[in-house]
Fold this protein.
Amino acid sequence: MKHRFLIVLCLLLLPFNVLAISQNWLESLSEYAEAQVDDVSLYYHIKKPQVYWDLANSLEKKIYLNSLGDNLFYLENDPDKLVILIDNIIEKTAAKLGLVVPETNIFLYPDQKELYRVTAYNDGFYVVMGNEVHVTPNDLYKVLEYVMAANYPNLERKLLMAMAKYYFPNYSRPHQQAQYWLNFQELPALSIVNAKTTVSLDYKDWDAIASFMGYLIETYPNLAWEEIKHLSDVETLLSTNLFTLEQSWRKYLQSKFYLKLARNEEVLVGQDAVGACLIENPGDPLNDVCLEIFNNNPHEATMGYVTQRYYEQLNSKTNELIRFKLSAPQKGAEEIWLIAKMSYTDASGKEDVCLFSLPIKIVSI
């Protein structure tokens, strides 16, 4: 009876606490305005427009790079465009996974200091019962994590975050990032990643678990994620073990992805950086292969073309090294991104994209 009383008491108090905290947030948002698309609302700081301009610009580039077609929106980089982009990511991810999209209120703070001022939290978070996501530009992927948490309430936080990172567009795709560490023999073992707490995972751990979650989603499309809490549940449902799954995933990375990229890590202002891209095809022939190398300055509205190659067919065991130069900006940037995108049609007729990027630090004279 005592335990029953405590459970009932907690359930009664929870909505009150959520409401009370939410009210406190609202009282601190006098300088925020709302932009809305469908059931997604974005609350943004009206006195920090550059933050949202930069974020909309970056997000549009990432969506374009991760797509097979021309997905540019050709709109002004403002909060209205930003909420359209976020809604686009949510809807596409929901369609792929069969998710129900809940009402979503995104409180997007310009920086971590402002997040703490309003919420007293140092890191982004969400409240599923309150339909709220509180984030900065650096953790916008948590919007997808919130949608997934509403659909997979049993799934542990680490796996929710990894799934969100897998689907949220970036300048590199998770498989290519994991392959990069694998090539240097620095890809963490899943047994180690699985044993760590969410807060103790470093960037290599996140690259590994995000890629592994993507592998599971791609290889086992009927896996019942609503029944899964930990990776041990995946082992049970697939009648296998984590070691076997990890070996299959690593072979998948070695046999399927075709891009390797190298460049000067640093370059003087106004000077040329030297780079190279290696295309490898370890498997079946690929058709309609298009390689594009971009130079991206985060402060500019568009990306620059460095070079482009087209192959009607890329035969099995083909290796080709493309060398190039790119100019560092004269001013206004501390780093630029070198981005390689390769779109292709595989032997089964499926269209796909490889995407990998590396930063180049701009050094003043």
Notes: Residues 1-21 have pLDDT under 50 and may be disordered. The first strand starts at residue 32 and ends at 37. The radius of gyration is 22 Å. Residues 2-27 form the longest helix (26 residues).
